[in-house]
Amino acid sequence: MTKTISTTKKISTRTGSLAGLAVAALALTASDVVNQGYDPLAETVSRYVNLPHGWLVTVGLLGIALGSAALAVRTVRTGGGGRSGWLLGFWAVCVLVAAVFPADPPGGWDRPSTSDTVHGVAAWAGFLALAVAIVRLTVLWRREPARASGARGLTVLAWASSVAFVLFAAAMVDRAALTHTAPLGLAERVVIAVDLAWLALAAVTTSAAPRSAASGTMSRMSRMSRMTTGLTK
User: What is the maximum alpha-carbon separation in the chain?
Assistant: First the structure.
């Protein structure tokens, strides 16, 4: 009975994660297609919330938050990610905050509203937490036979995510304080796309095996210890 409940929870968190990420990908892609007011190479995704179909951005962010939260719960529950599972949860919370507090329209870098400030802080804290979580979890999961099928893909996407995050940060610094010409919107879209791909692959490859295996190992060690003690006596 316990095994059935565990399997059901595993399937529900995986389904929730993939569904949320799929909704996010569709909504954000649709936003770029139907919202023609801004330049997607220059403006970040969150600025599009101020256009007629801006609700698509909110839906996309909520989808990311849901999908990431489900993956975080699954990772923490199975014990296969250590503290990095909580970093995924922190990322999910940050995305939720960014969805609740929308960004300002373009052109207000010098006088952001309170909502825009909260949005920006949450976004950057979340991106940083996710970048760290992706690297840490990829390193951990590469060593687990249960996740061998997705290890190479996770590794490639982890490298791509790290490079994309650095380029995104550089583009932000340039737009804010240097030449003001870096393609910030493009850089953000690349890092979001790579991160969503990693999260989706992680949702597919993450299993409940690590905790069960660890439990079985501890049980066997306990029995061996008792046997050794008995022989010694």
Answer: 82
pTM: 0.83
211 confidence band (pLDDT: 50, 70, 90): very low
In contact, 46 and 102? CB cutoff 8 Å: yes
Q: Which of 154, 15, 163, 38 is nearest to 105 (CA)?
A: 38
Cα separation, 164 vs 189, in Å, equals 10
Q: Are 71 and 21 in contact (CB under 8 A)?
A: no
CB 12 within 8 A of CB 158: no
72, 134 contact by CB (below 8 A):
no
Contact 25, 174 (CB under 8 A): no
The neighbour count for residue 229, using CB atoms within 10 Å, is 9
Output the six-digit token pair for 26: 């569709």
According to DSSP, residue 143 is labeled T
